[in-house]
């Protein structure tokens, strides 16, 4: 699984995908068997990688189109079920998601700040989760990294290469791995292990202590 949405973009030839049939291009047949060789190409071959790149381009288009309107992607029936489930989760977690989103929104509204997400979830499921939790407005797809293959520390290094070493990084999380990676790179770490930690973060951002 790629670490970042653009990791396979160099294999994309820019072909118009408006009439492209993902269901019949042979990609899945090649993907199900490492030893299967078809006219459509073998897994990892040039043709297969191009088809993979097409899929990531399509995912990027869908994410960017629906990041502020997930209901439009789900359709009316699933939208209602999703909204109901979201409401139930909010009630059970004392509005954890709403509180988190408030902090993320403050950060993304600042002209000199960005939100970057590093997750141990594989990239495509991670993007789906971000959309379903209505976090798409807080995280541009280019700022989402999957640490499944390379680990969080390597992701941090990649992010520092991208944004530079002169900017201030603040790591917000609840795990040992990200805390250790933050310590190694001399980044302040804000631990979120309870609801009060989340409220404190929001307050710190609101009053511009952070």
TrEMBL record:
According to the UniProt record, what class of enzyme is this? hydrolase
List the protein's name: Eyes absent homolog
Cofactor entry: Mg(2+)
Question: Does Magnesium show up as a keyword for this record?
Answer: yes
- Coiled-coil positions are none
EC id: 3.1.3.48
The reactions it catalyses are:
O-phospho-L-tyrosyl-[protein] + H2O = L-tyrosyl-[protein] + phosphate
* PANTHER family xrefs: EYES ABSENT, EYES ABSENT HOMOLOG 4
Ligand binding (Mg(2+)): 174
State any single GO MF term: protein tyrosine phosphatase activity
NCBIfam families listed in its UniProt record: EYA-cons_domain
Where is it located?
A: Cytoplasm; Nucleus
Q: Which family does it belong to?
A: Belongs to the HAD-like hydrolase superfamily. EYA family.
GO BP terms in the entry = cell differentiation; chromatin organization; DNA repair; negative regulation of extrinsic apoptotic signaling pathway in absence of ligand; positive regulation of DNA repair
According to the UniProt record, one GO cellular component term is:
cytoplasm
UniProt KW Metal-binding keyword: yes
Q: Which InterPro entries match?
A: EYA (IPR028472), EYA_dom (IPR006545), EYA_dom_sf (IPR038102)
Organism from which the protein derives: Electrophorus electricus (Electric eel)
Q: How is the cofactor bound here?
A: Binds 1 Mg(2+) ion per subunit.
Q: Which UniProt keywords apply?
A: Activator, Chromatin regulator, Cytoplasm, Developmental protein, DNA damage, DNA repair, Hydrolase, Magnesium, Metal-binding, Nucleus, Protein phosphatase, Transcription, Transcription regulation
């Amino acid at each position: 699984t790629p670490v970042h949405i653009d990791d396979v973009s160099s294999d994309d030839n820019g072909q118009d995908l408006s009439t492209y049939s993902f269901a019949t291009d042979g990609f899945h047949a090649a993907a199900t068997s490492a030893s299967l060789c078809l006219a459509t190409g073998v897994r990892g071959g040039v043709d297969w990688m191009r088809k993979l790149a097409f899929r990531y381009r399509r995912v990027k288009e869908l994410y960017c189109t629906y990041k502020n309107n997930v209901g439009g992607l789900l359709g009316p029936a699933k939208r209602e079920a999703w909204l109901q489930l979201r409401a139930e989760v909010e009630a059970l977690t004392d509005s954890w998601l709403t509180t988190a989103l408030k902090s993320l929104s403050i950060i993304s509204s600042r002209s000199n700040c960005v939100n970057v997400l590093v997750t141990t979830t594989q990239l495509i499921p991670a993007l789906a989760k971000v959309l379903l939790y209505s976090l798409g407005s807080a995280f541009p797809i280019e700022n989402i990294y999957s640490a499944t293959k390379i680990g969080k520390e390597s992701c941090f290094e990649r992010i520092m290469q991208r944004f530079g070493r002169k900017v201030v990084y603040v790591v917000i999380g609840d795990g040992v791995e990200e805390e250790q990676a933050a310590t190694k790179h001399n980044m302040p770490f804000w631990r979120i292990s309870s609801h009060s930690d989340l409220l404190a973060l929001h307050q710190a951002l609101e009053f511009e202590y952070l």
